[in-house]
Amino acid sequence: MTTVLPRTSREVRLAAVPEGLPAPTDFTVTETAPPAPAPGHVLVRNRHFQVFGGLRTLLGGAAEGTPVPGLHPGDALYGPAVGEVVVAPPGSPLRPGDLVTHLLGWREYALVPVAQCLPLDPALPEPAAGLSSGSAAYGALTRLAGVREGDVVLVTGAAGGVGSLAGQIARLLGAGRVIGSTGSPGKAERLTSELGYDAVLTGGSWRERRDGTDEHAAYRAFSAQLAQAAPDGIDVLLDNVGGIQLTAAVDAARHGARFALVGALSGQLAETGAGAAAPTRIDAFRLVVKGVSVRGYTGVDHPDVEAEWTGRFGAWLRSGDIRLPLTRFEGIERAPRALWELTRGQTFGTVVVDLPGHG
């Protein structure tokens, strides 16, 4: 059976380095010739790809020290994607029609090395679930924080792709009380009513200072909310934000608390700078006398997590023990808008661009 190859493909390219947070005008959606099949590679028709806040750092020219390359004007963007194999080389374990995950999203067709394609777990109830950021939350909570029965857990940035799963995972691992933070009352209500958070704090957002809120006043307000939600302190922090929320968490830590740092949105999504720094004031004396551990989490340091997470995630989804909130955009032309809304705090959960049939 002869495979009919596509005539054209579209991809999102960086048109100009953003001044501040990225805007749709910083990108172009370009029609190109599709990539030609090549030895050792599979041609994949993408069905869905993820939009994530970390792109801000890659776009700002400050990716040095990160495990992935930065982006320059004219480059196509990239990120996690789910697609269907169109052409596979002889001897490959993949076949046309197979669904795979890879890291060449932001385009309709991708030519991906076979070794960089993973078959999509058939246990997942829908393909877009393969784009969840839950492995970071799961790895941080199991490998770094070691959630124990009855722990009080704080998740900052709880309405994002990582945070919206982290609270649920912490509960499934035995946490006794789960507290989140987010930037709006509407998101806070969804976190408690839909995702099982016991309490959600809405102060302390780095975005508040766009309106002139004094940093120290924002810190005091957030600390007061945290003290009310966790009067006896916290055992575990899964931090996606940094900034004054991390400062307040140190103050609220119980003896032997374990902090896992997954993101730094206070810097990555700041209106100024390149998104590669998130300075935070931490009382080192409190860390010492309380015996608090603080560790950063990256998936490359824990290669065993992905397979373990995928198995547990599929089972939890099928049983209804966990929910995957998605904000969806249809069509590659809407991808720049999706990034605009995400970086301005207008999305909830994992942000996915769905690609309808093309070719």
TrEMBL record:
Where does the source fall among the domains of life?
Bacteria
| Cross-referenced Pfam families | ADH_N_2, ADH_zinc_N
Example GO molecular function term? Answer: oxidoreductase activity, acting on the CH-CH group of donors, NAD or NADP as acceptor
- What Gene3D superfamilies does UniProt report for this protein, alphabetically? Medium-chain alcohol dehydrogenases, catalytic domain, NAD(P)-binding Rossmann-like Domain
Q: Which PROSITE patterns has this protein been placed in?
A: QOR_ZETA_CRYSTAL
Q: What UniProt keywords apply to this chain's record, in alphabetical order?
A: Oxidoreductase
According to UniProt, the name of this protein is: NADP-dependent oxidoreductase
- SMART domains in the cross-refs: PKS_ER
Annotated Enoyl reductase (ER) domain residues = 20-353
